[in-house]
């Protein structure tokens, strides 16, 4: 007999009873469906204690690493402190250390958190302007390499948060940020696997983070980063990425430009989708990370899956723009 | 004698079948339209649940779940021809994985046993 801690209460478990079963018995409204460890709708997160192996069967490695588990298949044998998924609210304050434009519309914001801030490159954090207003931005920095958090903020016309960050925030200001989230990050364990990192616009931020993280963790397999932009002028950190490709033989960088903007600049001769399909020629050998515009990310995901890539090897972070600001 | 689920290879068989099966469903014009705009990862999880059930594996799906899960699709015209297509694609998936004909028939029988619930009849 053991217990779980949930909602600030200690709840006793009967022999062999699942976390889902005991919480439903106590009238907690926990989402669930199949109760057989398959549909994953009862996913929760453990913040302390040992998670039984069976409770993480079928979960992506990135979710397992963060302590997510399925409540229906979780029969703890020792005390376990659990919270609802996405209920890990750890706000902290961070100081603006750098505020520079990377291109006409993209701001590089570097922040120094005032307490230890745990994250994985490629995850996103929320920035709060007030109690009601928050937006998510992906991390381009790598915890083991950088002392700051780096975000790339595209200025969205009429965007409440991006306008504020671009026009009003200055070096030395303090921002309220919230714990990193998302399952788009590098997990060591298969150093030879080929990695495809593709995205549009500021989807480049998490992709750079993932690439640097993978290299720092000794990834040996090919890493192909493809940055899709509307026009040539939207490319940013171009020279940095070219330099990275010079330095690290396993790292390859390519761009895909949708529109020609004058006689000088040319559009790419193939679509971003064709470009990534041409790159991942034997899809079963690849793992893909897709970030940026939601519609494009979702169609790239479908195209890669249909070409033969395993769904379990496709990680994506579709950026959603707040409905009021579209 | 081993159960159908054990003969097919249990959870590993579900994992091996799900991507192949879902790819077939998405590329078949008879049924692909019903999957437009759905979240692919959530759908993969649902497909795993479905395959576990028709493989005779552990599940707690009820007739009520089947009815509620497909009600909006029945309103959009889901009928016997679509269930037939899905059963056919399921058979083709298992054939590709080298499953014996009798076992494929048994899987098809389980799938057909929930036909009326799926179609809300």
CA distance, first residue to last residue of chain A: 53 Å
Largest interface: pair, residues per side: A-B, 16 and 21 residues
Q: Helix and strand succession of chain A?
A: EEHEHEEEEEEEHEEHEHEHEHE
Seen as an oligomer or otherwise, the chain set is heterodimer
Total strands of chain B: the figure is 0
Helical content of chain A stands at: 10-25%
C-alpha Rg of chain A (nearest Å): 21 Å
What fraction of residues of chain A sit in β-strands? 25-35%
Rg of Cα set of chain B: 14 Å
Q: How far is it from the N-terminal to the C-terminal residue of chain B, by CA?
A: 35 Å
- Estimate the strand proportion of chain B: under 5%
Strand arrangement, largest sheet of chain A? 9-8-11-6-7-10
Note the main sheet of chain B: none
Low-confidence regions of chain B = none
What's the helical proportion of residues of chain B? 55-70%
Q: Treating each run of at least 4 consecutive H or I residues as one helix, how many helices of chain B? A: 7
- H and E order of chain B: HHHHHHH
Structural class of chain A, by secondary structure, is: alpha/beta
Structural summary, described in words:
The complex is a heterodimer of chains A (326) and B (121). Chain A is of the alpha/beta class. Chain A is built from 7 helices and 16 strands. In chain A, the strands form 3 sheets. In chain A, strands 9-8-11-6-7-10 form a 6-stranded antiparallel sheet. A 5-stranded mixed sheet of chain A has the order 2-1-5-3-4. The longest helix of chain A has 14 residues, at 294-307. The radius of gyration of chain A is 21 Å and the shape is globular. The model of chain A has no long low-confidence stretch (mean pLDDT 90). Chain B has 121 residues and is mostly helical. In chain B, 69% of the residues lie in helices and 0% in strands. In chain B, helix 2 (10-26) crosses helix 5 (80-96) and helix 5 (80-96) packs antiparallel against helix 6. The longest helix of chain B has 17 residues, at 10-26. The radius of gyration of chain B is 14 Å and the shape is globular. Chain B starts with a helix and ends with a helix.
């Amino acid at each position: 007999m053991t217990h779980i801690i949930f909602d600030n209460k200690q709840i006793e478990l009967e022999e062999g009873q699942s976390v889902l079963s005991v919480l439903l018995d106590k009238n907690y409204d926990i989402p669930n469906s199949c109760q057989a460890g398959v549909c994953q709708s009862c996913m929760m997160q453990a913040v302390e204690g040992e998670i039984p192996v069976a409770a993480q069967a079928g979960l992506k490695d990135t979710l397992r690493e963060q302590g997510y588990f399925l409540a229906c298949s979780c029969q703890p044998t020792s005390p376990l402190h659990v919270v609802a998924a996405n209920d890990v609210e750890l706000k902290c304050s961070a100081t603006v250390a750098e505020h520079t434009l990377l291109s006409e519309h993209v701001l590089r914001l570097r922040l120094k958190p005032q307490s230890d801030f745990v994250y994985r490159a490629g995850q996103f954090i929320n920035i709060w302007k007030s109690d009601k207003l928050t937006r998510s931005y992906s991390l381009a920095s790598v915890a083991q390499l950088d002392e700051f958090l780096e975000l790339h903020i595209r200025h969205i016309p009429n965007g409440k948060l991006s306008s504020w960050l671009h026009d009003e925030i200055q070096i030395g200001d303090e921002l309220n940020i919230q714990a990193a989230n998302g399952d788009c990050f590098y997990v060591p364990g298969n150093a030879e696997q080929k990695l495809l990192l593709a995205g549009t616009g500021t989807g480049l931020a998490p992709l750079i983070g993932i690439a640097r993280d993978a290299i720092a963790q000794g990834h040996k397999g090919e890493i192909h980063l493809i940055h899709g932009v509307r026009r040539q002028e939207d490319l940013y950190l171009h020279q940095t990425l070219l330099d990275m490709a010079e330095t690290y033989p396993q790292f390859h960088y390519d761009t895909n430009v949708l529109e020609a903007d004058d006689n000088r600049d040319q559009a790419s001769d193939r679509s971003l989708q064709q470009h990534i399909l041409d790159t991942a020629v034997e899809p079963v050998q690849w793992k893909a990370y897709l970030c940026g515009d939601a519609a494009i990310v979702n169609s790239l995901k479908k195209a890669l899956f249909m070409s033969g890539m395993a769904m379990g090897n496709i990680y994506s972070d579709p950026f959603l723009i707040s409905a009021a600001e579209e | 004698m081993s159960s159908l689920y054990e003969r097919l290879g249990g959870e590993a068989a579900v994992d091996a079948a799900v991507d192949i099966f879902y790819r077939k469903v998405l590329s078949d014009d008879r049924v692909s339209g019903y999957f437009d705009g759905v979240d692919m990862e959530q759908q993969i999880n649902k497909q795993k649940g479905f395959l576990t059930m028709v493989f005779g594996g552990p599940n707690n799906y009820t007739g009520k779940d089947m009815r509620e899960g497909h009600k909006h699709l029945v309103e959009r015209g889901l009928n016997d021809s679509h269930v037939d297509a899905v059963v056919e694609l399921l058979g083709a998936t298992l054939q590709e994985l080298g499953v014996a004909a009798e076992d494929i028939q048994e899987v098809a029988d389980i799938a057909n046993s929930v036909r009326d619930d799926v179609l809300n009849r």
